Amino acid sequence: MWMMLRVIPMMWGSVRPSRVADMPAVVNTFWIRKGYEGLTFFGHILTHNQSDADKFNAGYNSLKNHEMIHLRQAQSCGDSWVCFYLLYIWYWLKIKISRKKRHFCVRNAAYLLNPFEMEAYARMYDLDYLKRCEGGAHEWRRYAKMSIEERLRLYEKRKD
Question: Structurally, how many domains does the chain consist of?
Answer without folding.
Answer: 1
